[in-house]
Model the fold of this input.
Amino acid sequence: MTTEYLMPTYNRFSIELVDGHDFHLQDNTGKVYVDFTSGIGVCNLGYHNPATQAAVTEQLQHVWHVSNLYPHHLQTEVAALLAPKNYKTFFCNSGTEANEAAFKLARKYTNRKEILAFNYGFHGRTMGSLSITGYPAIQDGFKPLVAGAHFSGYNDNKALDTINNQTAAVILEVIQGEGGVNVGEKIWLQAIEKRCHDTGALLIIDEVQTGMGRTGYKFAHEIANLHPDIITVAKGLANGLPVGAMMAKAQLANTFGPGSHGNTFGGNPIVMASAKAVLQQLTPSFLQTVQAKGKVLHTYLTQTILPLSAVTSISGVGLMIGIHLEASVEVIEVVKKLQGRGLLTLSARGNTLRLLPPLIINDEAIKWSVQQIKIVLEMEK
Ligand SMILES: *Cc1c(COP(=O)(O)O)cnc(C)c1O
Done:
């Protein structure tokens, strides 16, 4: 398939995916794959999810768009289902926009300029979010960036000393996704939160990849018992339609008064119809099934993949997993070989094979997929 009319912003594979059902995808030659990507943590409820499909089909018969000058009941319903108690929600269209909104809100609310982010944290590619994304390679060529961003080592206690009464906010992922599935240590995360409270800095948790049930919890910060001032989500919120949301504690909300921030499409009724159906399926009992599947996956990986000479370690929580490979094994070659065997996987920084299966995956598919990974990694080293 030709991509010559497109900007070459991605190293695209040659497979064109045209259809799917639950956790299977099909390419334009009819070949079927088990999906361990969810389109990078987006289609968490799989393909052709009946409830989201019905909700979107229903809303298509009504308005597709109304200006945010008018209220829409679906926005209210989604905000009520999504946010923790006493948070208010701002809707946008992507993860980077959600973090952009968080950055702006934090500056305006605190009247401070500085923001602390972490090496290999990923928050998006618009100028604000890019400025707090800790990858020199992603920032290269786009400077000058937004002033006031600082970086520290993730899980590094030195970060605590850099948070002070000039700090508007600290932004972090509870598990760094693009950065290589690096799990934040609970004690460190709690120390960061305490330091924020002591200095009046806001704590922004980017749940764009970790949220919406990915870890077996609605939000990953629940695992570390954090109380962020601001939470951002996107990817999995509408199971494949473009959406983002920033939730902030209610006392911050007046800072975003009329005219202070906004966007045309945020909270679009078609997208909200899907998000509502997603949230209605994200019940405590569903989240328990995700935790159980995460345990099954982790157990198989520990038994069959961890002992392989190609593997250095395995990290992750729930259905967000990183398999860290020896330097001599090229992760992208592993991804391609797995595609050949009918399994779609992702890579992440640090030669990491990243697994983000739809949350509706089953034990049989988990077992089969781990077996494919084993076969390919054994051939590699
Ligand atoms: C993907 C991602 C983003 C950016 O989301 P976009 O919708 O691509 O703008 C931000 N933060 C995290 C943690 C992500 O994984």
Summary: Residues 256 and 345 are 40 Å apart (CA to CA). The first strand starts at residue 17 and ends at 21. The pocket of pyridoxal-5'-phosphate is lined by residues 94-96, 99, 122-124, 173, 177-178, 206, 208-209, 234-235 (CB under 6 Å).
